[in-house]
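Hi all, long-time lurker, first post. I run a small reading group and we've been trying to get comfortable going from sequence to structure in the token notation. Rather than ask abstract questions, I figured I'd post a concrete chain and ask someone more experienced to write out its structure so we can walk through it together at our next meeting. Sequence below, copied exactly:
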Amino acid sequence: MTRLAPLAVAALIGLAVGATNVGPRLRVDPDTPADLRDLARGTWASFLAAFPARTACIPDVALVGRWTLPDRAEYRPDPPTVLVRIPATARQLEAALVHEFAHHLEFQCPEQAGLRPAFLRSQGMPAGHPWFAGASWEATPSERFAEATVQLVLGDRALRRRMAIGEEAEALIRAWGLGLDPSTAASLGPAPAPGPPTRTEDG
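-- Answer (accepted) --
Happy to help. Here is the structure in token form:
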């Protein structure tokens, strides 16, 4: 299973949320509890570290904590907003946030469409299968992409779902995030496990 090196995470944080505030920003609602705010900012930095070659097409996104929400989390594309239900454990929140950040990526970054045919094939689906449709949540390519991104970003911290995605899908996302052709995914080899979430000062 492929993993992101902590050094790569630190390098991207310096670019994305450093003193010049270059790169996509997570806009946190001022009423968000401090512990969720800090965890979300660190998770956002770790998410961006998975896609260093794609940050130019990832716009800012807002985060709102909700005490009542039908699902654990939800993504709304217009305007780009992630809603997350609180309270929850840190692991639940991390997984939910990365999952919704992945939806933000696929909705807002046109380049992500170029990854879809290879990802679909990795899931045993025809290249032309509808991305946002499936017989169930687990069979929907969009949801499988989001869960594969959770595995890539969080590694062993990821909550295990009843969804067999496979290492090939994870490697494809990693290669694409690095700006490489998906066909090079197999040659990348495994990366070190990611470190703990890093607190940032982005607002």
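A couple of things your group might point at:
Helices lie at 6-16, 34-49, 90-108, 116-122, 141-154, 167-177.
Residues 1-20, 198-203 have pLDDT under 50 and may be disordered.
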